[in-house]
Structures are given as structure tokens and as C-alpha cells.
Amino acid sequence: MSSYDVIVIGSGPGGYVAAIRCAQLGLKTACVEGRETLGGTCLNVGCIPSKALLHATHMLHEAEHNFEEMGLKAKAPTVDWKQMLTYKDKTIETNTKGIEFLFKKNKIDWLKGWGSVPEAGKVKVGDEVHEAKNIIIASGSEPAGLPGVEVDEKTVVTSTGALELGKIPKKMVVIGAGVIGLELGSVYARLGTEITVVEYLDAITPGMDPEVQKTFQRMLKKQGLNFVMGAAVQKTEVAKGKAKVSYKLRKDDSEHEIEADTVLVATGRKPVIKGMGLDDLGIKMTERGQIAVNEHWETSVKGVYAIGDVIEGPMLAHKAEDEGMAAAEVISGKHGHVNYGVIPGVIYTHPEVASVGETEATLKDAGREYKVGKFSFMGNARAKAVFAGDGFVKLIADKETDRILGCHIIGPGAGDLIHEVCVAMEFGASAQDLAMTCHAHPTYSEAVREAALACGDGPIHM
Ligand code: FAD
């Protein structure tokens, strides 16, 4: 038996970051991970592999659609799917090994196996019980199922199966028009798969700015994705390696079927809590089955903390990381802090979509007066030069004080551009502060400044 100041359960972006911060703050730390490799969902079957495939297929798209226009006359590349998967696996490996290196560097013990908490202050891994003054649960999430849909990870797959299909399917049905479904749908659409996205709601990417939703759906349609909206999937059936998806249209209850080689179920994720003995420990849960925590990320059991996808809030790697750092700081007697009002959300399609803070809808609901500064990438020289003029930046500021309340971007580099607004929001900046900041030319970020100008006297290039 070993004794630690902190044992973290789970080595995803929440867990590994918490472990590193604990160690940096002088706490004797171990991290339990049941997977073969560190890094959790994000590095193994989430953010990183999906971005590798998005990158590779975006290169293909550029070659097929834009090279000729730029005077690049080589034949468009053919796809070696096996090699593309190898590239994706190597990307995973360098990243997961990187965490192993960081654990060694920070003298964090990796306790290999599945952990449980038999009592406060104790963590069991295999047959061994370790003592821990503090425990951080960072067990993450897993794909949520859908009644009537049986996943076999071959024909009917979750995102995990979709990242390693044996071959590129001819036809794919994606159930759910959320971030994961649209990113992976884009990957396969670029590889020539006929994609049909079946979504229960009437708009894609729930919660996003409606103008962004509409523009994004239009762009995805142009890229070949088909959409069936307002459709409730009833069941999937698999025979001889082919799938049939049955759905009902909500507007008239009419019943329909689509056939596909592969069905991707991307209807959300649920917290991983099984097997850790949390019930017996008396840990309180939320109504939605997440671990309930207070403002210091402590559960109802003293000395047991929880962070990341297993607690409330957006299921995002950077939200988990921030909570990991904050919980470590609280444990070491410092003041951990996460500003939940400034957590960006990014969709890594082409173009990218990014948002932070309030939307017009949330402000209307709150009865708050606001103004909108909007700027199209058609007025941005750099974007036009790289065939990326479609899209816009929409900055929302308080009508009276001009303080920035939110930003929604669809366009080139949106996932990076959003951070300028995040920093501005953290500092309580006004739209005018952004508008008065010199932005290098020609950059996409000029569009953010122009949107800020549009909140005041007006943009220059529109
Ligand atoms: P996880 O990353 O889920 O890690 C939890 C770890 O705990 C796992 O490795 C698990 O094996 C381990 N574990 C669980 N129980 C135990 C136990 N009892 N004992 C030992 N180990 C245990 N987010 C973004 O911000 N950007 C993206 O681009 C993005 N892309 C995504 C793409 C896909 C396809 C998917 C599925 C997700 C994506 N996400 C993305 C979401 C992101 O992966 C998660 O929000 C993030 O991984 C959550 O981190 P976490 O530390 O809470 O948990």
C-alpha cells in the first residue's frame, strides 16, 4: 500500500492536468488509468484522432477543389485509407506518450488498472488499496445509447468505431447533428461517402447562435452532406453488413427508412460512474446522472473531488483541464477559479465554427439590451485570397456599457480567432477596446476588429 496526498482517477484532460498541477504544487500524486495509454477520451478516441482525420481530409479537399485555381496542376491525390489511419494512430501515440513523459517529469505514479473508492481516503486498484488524503474523480464520459439502436462498432458505430472503420463506407447515416456527428460526417463526406445526417431537432448544433446554425448548415449542404431534420430515429437493423435506419418525422409522424453501410450514433455522451463504488460511498448525483459538486469541485463526501465530463457543464477538454487545475489549487490551499461564462466552443470543420459567451437568444431570454456588430469574411482580404470568404464574425456587446458579452464566428481560423475575444471578455473589455487595438494586415483577425467597429461607428471594409 502506498500513501499519497492526491490520487486522481482517470487520465483524460481533466485528470492528467489535475495530476500535473498537484505535483507542481508539491503534492505527492498518483493517477489511476484503466486504459492501455494515458490521455483519456480526448487523446485516444476524441479530440486528437478526429482532428488528425479532419486535417488529412481537408488537405484532400483543398487538392480536389482549389489547387487548379491556384495554378497547381498535379492530379488530386488518391486516398490510402490504411495509411491515413496509421497517421491518425501515430498522432495519438505521440500525444499519449507525451503525457507519460510529463508524468515521469513531475514524478506522478501511474497506477495501472481500474480504480474504485471503497471509502473516503482510499483508492483500490486491482487488489491493492492505496491511501489518499484527497481523491479527484475524473472518469470522463462515454457515448450515450439510443433506444432501438444497437451498437456493434462495425456497422452501427459510435465515434470510437468511426475513427477506425475497416474501409471508407459508400453510404453513412449520422444520427445527431451535434459537434461530433458533423465533424466525423465531414471527414467521410470529403472521402466520398454519401452522408445523411438525421436530427431530432429542427436546427443543427443545438444552443448555437441561430444565424451561425443556418449558415453552417448551408455550407455543409454545399459540401455534400444531406440533412433530415425533425426526425426521431426509431430503430436500426443490421443484415449482411448493411444497416437500415427507421425514423419518424415529427411534423406528421410519417415513417421512413434509409439504408447505409455504416451508421454513426452521435447523440451525446454520458458520465462514466460505474464500478467506482460511488453509491456505497454516498456521493450525491445530479438529476442527469453526473457527480454533484460544490463551487470548489468537492463532492458530498469530504476530500473527494470531481471534475470534467463526469460533472455538470459542457463536455469539453479545455473545461475539464481548467477544472483540473482549479481543483488541484483548491486542494493545495490556493484559490482555484474557472470562469464558466468564458468557455469557448469550437467545431473543427471547414470552415471552423466558434463561439463564446451569450447568444442573442440567451440575452433576449434574460431581457438584457444588447447590440450586434457583424462582419462578413467577404470583406477580409486574406480570407478571400484563400477561398474562405464565406462566413462572418458576430460580436455581441451590452447596449449601454459596450462591454463584450459574446462572440460567434463561422469562417477561417474561427477556433483560434475566438480567443482574442475570450481574453477581452476576461478583462471586461468593451467592443471599442477591441476596435481600437491595432490588428496586423492581412489576417483573419481583422474581421474580429471590424465586427467590433460595427458595434460602434461602423466597419471600414463593408
Ligand atoms: P476523459 O477524457 O473521458 O477521460 C477519462 C479517463 O478516465 C478515461 O481514460 C477512462 O479510461 C478513465 N477511467 C474512467 N473510469 C476509471 C476508473 N474507474 N479507473 C481508472 N480509469 C478510469 N472536446 C474538445 O474540447 N475539443 C474537441 O475537439 C473534442 N473533440 C471530440 C471528439 C470526439 C470524437 C469525442 C468523443 C469527444 C471530443 N471532445 C472534444 C470531448 C472531450 O474528449 C472530453 O470533453 C474530454 O476528454 C473530457 O475529459 P475528462 O478528463 O473529463 O474525461
From TrEMBL:
Catalyzed chemical reaction(s): N(6)-[(R)-dihydrolipoyl]-L-lysyl-[protein] + NAD(+) = N(6)-[(R)-lipoyl]-L-lysyl-[protein] + NADH + H(+)
Keywords annotated in UniProt: Disulfide bond, FAD, Flavoprotein, NAD, Oxidoreductase, Redox-active center
Enzyme class: oxidoreductase
Record EC number: 1.8.1.4
All copies of domain FAD/NAD(P)-binding, residue ranges: 4-324
Superkingdom per UniProt: Bacteria
GO molecular function: dihydrolipoyl dehydrogenase (NADH) activity
Cofactor(s) the protein needs: FAD
SUPFAM superfamilies on file: FAD/NAD(P)-binding domain, FAD/NAD-linked reductases, dimerisation (C-terminal) domain
Residue ranges occupied by any Pyridine nucleotide-disulphide oxidoreductase dimerisation domain in the UniProt entry: 343-452
Record note on cofactor: Binds 1 FAD per subunit.
NCBIfam families: lipoamide_DH (TIGR01350)
Anything else known: The active site is a redox-active disulfide bond.
Family assignment from sequence similarity: Belongs to the class-I pyridine nucleotide-disulfide oxidoreductase family.
This protein's name: Dihydrolipoyl dehydrogenase
Organism listed in the record: Sulfitobacter profundi
